[in-house]
Amino acid sequence: MLVFDERMKLSWDEFHSLSLQQRAESFRMEGKVYHTIFSQQFSRHDLEQLSRLATKIRRIAKSKAGMAFLQSLLPHKRAMLYFQQPSTRTFLSFHAACPILGMKSSEVREARTSSEIKGETPEDSVRTFSSFFDVIIMRHPEAGFAEKIAWLLSNTERPVPVINAGSGKDQHPTQALLDVYTLFRSFEDRMGIDGKSLAFCGDLKRGRTVRSLAQLLTNFEDIEMYFVAPPELQIESDITDILDERGVKWQKADKLEDVVPLIDAVYMTRLQDEWDDKGESRNIDFADFNFSKKLLKQLKPSAVIMHPLPRRNEIPDEIDNDPRAVYWRQVRNGMWIRAALFATIFRRDDVISDYYETNNG
Ligand code: NCD
Fold this sequence. Notes:
By secondary structure, the chain is α/β, with parallel strands linked by helices. It contains 14 helices and eleven strands. 39% of the residues lie in helices and 14% in strands. The protein has a five-stranded parallel sheet. Helix 10 links the parallel strand 8 (224-228) and strand 9 (249-253). Helix 3 packs across helix 14 and helix 8 (173-186) packs across helix 13. The chain is globular. N-carbamoyl-L-aspartate is lined by residues 89-90, 166, 172, 175, 208-209, 269-270, 308-310.
């Protein structure tokens, strides 16, 4: 039986007042990830392990026998996908990752169809899910809600792991995992992620994917980051303070064209106007924060163009066929890294590695 960290037994207020490091440690069990709440809980070692595992799963799944082996690993586990905000890719990639390992999944996507409409609290809803399911994957508009649920469920008689699939403007840790996996794959023949320069462009103030990824990348050496955004939507000091603490070089920029020749990866994002109070971002000219075809010429031949998607006009479709455009690959990587996360949470990572050594290695 897996044993929780003693700190999980504290009251919510006491738990929440612990340092991020201490909370992150409590989300692990016997050395491996259990709850997935924020990106800072992943070490470089975790990222390398998960990425390697994702690649093994991807390769094993190519054969019929390999797929049959993977599907035999977790047929007794059921996942609840509880999505209280719109989602296409994150939802579908979790949904597609489950059956790779033989898991079943169910979904609640709208409070309208659940008892929340009768006045049930979201906390009680999620506690109900924990009676029927073995992992809860949740997207919620409130920052910190997934963490509270992880703490709550850890204090019930049927604790189950919680995976944050997007919490408010704050965090989207599994997107950051797939982004790092994509970077690992892109820079496989170029000494990996260390020493690379990345530009983040778009709505950096309210984009949770950028916030999670920028923090996750502090695990690597000699990274340089450029933040390209309209002044109103620039990255804020809560993130840049963390970068300073971890010794990451960063700077803000007003124009993509100034940084494009210098970088190894550009991470484009859309305007997050669903967070506007009164449509204030309507007056922002976002045109300068789109990756035009003209910029392709200035981009290094070995660089990559990323986007968490959905996109609006940030990247025209005609760029999709450029070999440097990896955003559709990111989508597929999302499925493999999420399968790797399930396998790690449910301790099937070693069996997969053994199978891989014997059959594919
Ligand atoms: C992102 C999200 O939901 O934060 N999408 C995703 O999960 N791939 C990005 C966005 O909505 O802009």
